[in-house]
Structure formats: structure tokens, C-alpha cells
Specification:
442 residues; alpha/beta; Aspartate Aminotransferase, domain 1; 7-stranded mixed β-sheet; 4-stranded mixed β-sheet; globular; binds pyridoxal-5'-phosphate
């Protein structure tokens, strides 16, 4: 083997892959050398259909020249400026463009670089907001079982997926967990399940038990994504909103996956008609081409932390930020991405494709191994009967799919589909056909 081939590098072993069983990977490496449209290509040129938009990142399809050229131009014009007491025009332009998409009132945009950072930023905004209003005792967060809010310590505290928490406590920020919303009664239901709005009352119970004066914010993914796509029960999110309002608790939607059209509207907040106080977003913000994330804050939060700050010359108004906040290349990528979404009406296209996608996905319910299917917009989750060890079969499924020419994410024994908005009905058929064929091998 040539010492410069990717395979040779792999065997040298310096690269420690995240969220990967590394020894298993080394024994059968899955490499992509290039991508175009809705396909990845392996180093030997085999096409693999991308049924996950990368990792929910790439709804406009891979390797869009408009984005690549915008980044290239930007790097030759202004490669870097700090955002600490300096900035650049594209950061302002992008913030305004994002604020045109967010729900009314959430028009202050704070940039960071990953979904995990957006979650930490939103947690700190919530703490700082209450403190500035003389309610510094509100330091506990409420989130949900089966939630995924990234991998930094705040997000791990909020997380409700056991493996993400187990090794890293104690000492995490204080967080209480509501029950998840995966109910037997809603099995094989597309869209929002009819049962389970009352699970929102867990928030009321936790607030009553611990005292509203201790609770800063309630974090939820409007559609829980990484755990296997759990759409909210009908009426659930509006009930959370009412409870938060009653007790002065901030409501945060983690839209790292659902942001930018995944549920048919720019944000799931609009799809479900519920406006939170903070929205976190990442992934599709640059169509996956540059690392970037953001928090959209309600203008009242900005007012409290910034406009009403007693000392206008102090950066202490919100003592937080990242070297790469609003990186010029990421801003250029995001602006080019938002142009594509608008010019190609991609959110509308995704909305139109959703019915067909869900219909085809749900056609797999006749397979014995399939125990549940869920989906909303262009997100779908399919559970398979676990083997002896939970997650073992899901992992094997993902590997067999790769060999059969389909890329998708699995979590435990759930397969997660999130096709790009440019996917054609034929390509949906092809994904479901490969999935059916591979599921039958178990
Ligand atoms: C809802 C949600 N929040 C946060 C994150 C973390 O994002 P990142 O991996 O960019 O840190 C993810 C990642 O999938 C996510 O789905």
C-alpha cells in the first residue's frame, strides 16, 4: 500500500475519530474522498447516496460552487478579524439575514462555531439575563430524557442520552429532566402524535418541586433529532410555552438540526407556531461548508443584558465569545448558503417533498424487524428490533448500508434519515429500496 494513500494514514493511527469505535473503524474503514449533489464517493469511486444531508448539515447538496467561491474570495479579501471589539461588514449582513428568518422578536444574533457552543452560549445568556434582573438564584435548567444538546459540559448536563452523560459527571451544571415523548400510543404515526401533550406538565411539576426562583430555562429540541427523530406530541410545545410564561422561565429551542427548513419553515418554532426566547442553530447555516453556529435571542434579553447595562463601556455586559465568532469565511459561506435557499426556494421544495418522503419511509412498516417509524418534514426515524446488546444491530445496519451504497446516521437501534432538500423522488425511492433490502438481511 502506498504510504500516502488514506488507507496507509489510517493504519499509522494518529487520527482519533470522534463518536466512533476506533478499532472497529480501522478494521473496515469507511472513507469518502469527494462528494457532489446528494452523493458521496469513496476513494475507489463508488457512489454512496447521502440520505442524511451529511449530518443534517447539507440540505442544498454537496460541494456547491457558489459557496466554495464565496469562501475563496473571502479568504483573499479578509481572512480573519477578531469579533472582540472589532468586526467586519459580512457579520452584520449575515445577522440581519438570519433575523429575517427567525420568529418575530428573536432578532439579536450571537455567532459561535458549533451546535455545542451555541447551547453553552444560550445557557450563559439565560443565567446572565436572570442575574441582571436580580434573580441570580435561577441557576437550574430543565431539559428532557433522550435529549441531545451537544458535548460540552453544559450540553452534557442537559443531555438525556445516557452514554453522553455517564462518564462525565459529577460537577455538571444543575439540570432536571422531563420525561421524553416517545410513546407507544404514537407508534407508526407520521407528524405530531395525538398523545402526550400532558408530558409537558413534567415541567410544571419540576418547577413546583424545586421552586420557580431556582429555574433559569427549559431547553428542548422541538423535534428530538439525534435520539431517533421524536416529533413533539400535538400541543406539547405550546404547553411548555405557557408553563414557562407562568413562572418566568426562559424557553429555549435547540434548532441545531431543525433550523433552516428541515421541518418545512425556516425554524421549527414557526412550523409549530410556538415562539421561544432563544434559538440555537448550526449545521445547515453554511450548508455544512464551514463550521458556524449562532444563537438568536429575543430583543428583551438583549435589552436587559446590553442596552440596559449600567456601564456602556464595559464588555462585561455579556462576558462571552469565541476567537472564531463570526469568522469571515464562515459568514461568506452562510451568506452564499442563504442566497441558495432563497433563490432555489429550497425550504418550499423540502416542504413539498415531505409527503412523498414520509409515505415511502412508512412503507417499511411491513418488515417484522421494524418496530416504529416516525417523521416530520424531511426528518425520519426508524427503530429496529434490538439484538442482544442494544445498539449493536443499529451499528451493523449502518455499516451494511454503507456497503450497499446508502449513507445515514444511526443512534442505538434507530436509523435516522434527513434527505437534502434537492433530493428527487427517484432518489427517495432508491434510499428506501436499499434500506428495505438491507433490513431484510437481518
Ligand atoms: C440538537 C443539537 N444540539 C447540539 C448539537 C451539537 O452540535 P455540534 O456537534 O455542532 O457541536 C447537535 C448535534 O447534532 C444537536 O443535534
Amino acid at each position: 500500500m502506498n504510504s500516502h494513500t488514506p488507507e496507509a494514514n489510517l493504519h499509522r493511527g494518529a487520527h482519533w475519530l470522534p463518536f466512533t469505535p476506533n478499532r472497529d473503524f480501522a478494521s473496515s474503514p469507511k472513507l469518502f474522498a469527494r462528494a457532489s449533489g446528494v452523493h458521496f464517493y469513496t476513494p475507489d469511486g463508488r457512489a454512496v447516496l447521502d440520505a442524511s444531508s451529511g449530518l443534517f448539515t447539507t440540505p442544498a447538496g454537496h460541494c456547491r460552487p457558489e459557496i466554495a467561491e464565496a469562501v475563496h474570495r473571502q479568504l483573499l479579501e479578509l481572512d480573519f478579524t477578531s469579533s472582540f471589539q472589532r468586526s467586519h461588514p459580512k457579520a452584520f449582513e449575515l445577522a440581519d439575514r438570519i433575523a429575517e428568518l427567525t420568529p418575530d422578536g428573536l432578532d439579536r444574533i450571537f455567532f459561535c462555531n458549533s451546535g455545542s457552543e451555541a447551547v453553552e452560549t444560550a445557557m450563559k445568556m439565560a443565567l446572565a439575563y436572570h442575574r441582571a434582573r436580580g434573580q441570580g438564584g435561577r441557576t437550574t435548567f430543565v431539559s428532557r430524557e433522550r435529549a441531545y444538546h451537544g458535548v460540552n459540559f453544559g450540553g452534557v448536563a442537559l443531555s438525556g442520552m445516557v452514554n453522553n452523560r455517564r462518564t462525565f459527571g459529577p460537577g455538571l451544571p444543575s439540570a432536571l429532566h422531563m420525561r421524553h415523548t416517545h410513546l407507544d400510543e404514537n407508534r407508526f404515526t407520521p407528524g405530531e402524535g395525538a398523545h402526550g401533550a400532558d408530558l409537558a406538565d413534567d415541567l410544571e411539576r419540576l418547577i413546583q418541586l424545586h421552586g420557580a426562583e431556582t429555574i433559569a430555562a427549559c431547553f428542548v429540541e422541538p423535534v428530538a433529532g439525534s435520539t431517533g427523530v421524536l416529533p413533539p406530541p400535538q400541543g406539547y410545545l405550546s404547553r411548555l410555552r405557557q408553563i414557562c410564561d407562568r413562572h418566568g422561565v426562559l424557553l429555549v429551542f435547540d434548532e441545531v438540526i431543525t433550523g433552516f427548513g428541515r421541518t418545512g419553515e425556516p425554524f421549527a418554532a414557526q412550523t409549530f407556531g410556538v415562539t421561544p426566547d432563544l434559538i440555537t442553530m448550526a449545521k445547515a447555516i453554511t450548508n455544512g461548508a464551514q463550521p458556524m453556529a449562532a444563537v438568536a435571542a429575543h430583543r428583551d434579553i438583549f435589552q436587559t443584558l446590553v442596552t440596559d447595562s449600567p456601564n456602556p463601556l464595559s464588555s462585561n455586559e455579556f462576558f462571552h465569545g469565541y476567537t472564531w465568532s463570526a469568522h469571515p469565511a464562515a459568514c461568506a459561506a452562510a451568506l452564499a448558503t442563504l442566497d441558495i435557499y432563497r433563490e432555489e426556494a429550497l425550504f418550499e421544495r423540502g416542504r413539498q417533498l415531505s409527503g412523498y418522503f414520509l409515505e415511502q419511509l412508512f412503507s417499511l412498516r411491513d418488515l417484522d424487524i421494524v418496530t416504529d417509524i416516525r417523521g416530520l418534514g424531511l426528518m425520519g426515524g426508524l427503530d429496529i428490533q434490538p439484538a442482544r446488546q442494544p445498539g449493536e444491530r443499529g451499528h451493523e445496519l449502518q455499516k451494511r448500508l454503507f456497503d450497499a451504497g446508502l449513507h445515514l446516521k444511526t443512534t442505538g437501534d434507530s436509523a435516522i434519515l434527513a434527505p437534502a432538500f434537492i433530493t428527487t423522488p427517484d432518489q427517495i425511492d432508491q434510499s428506501v429500496e436499499i434500506l428495505r433490502r438491507v433490513l431484510k438481511t437481518f
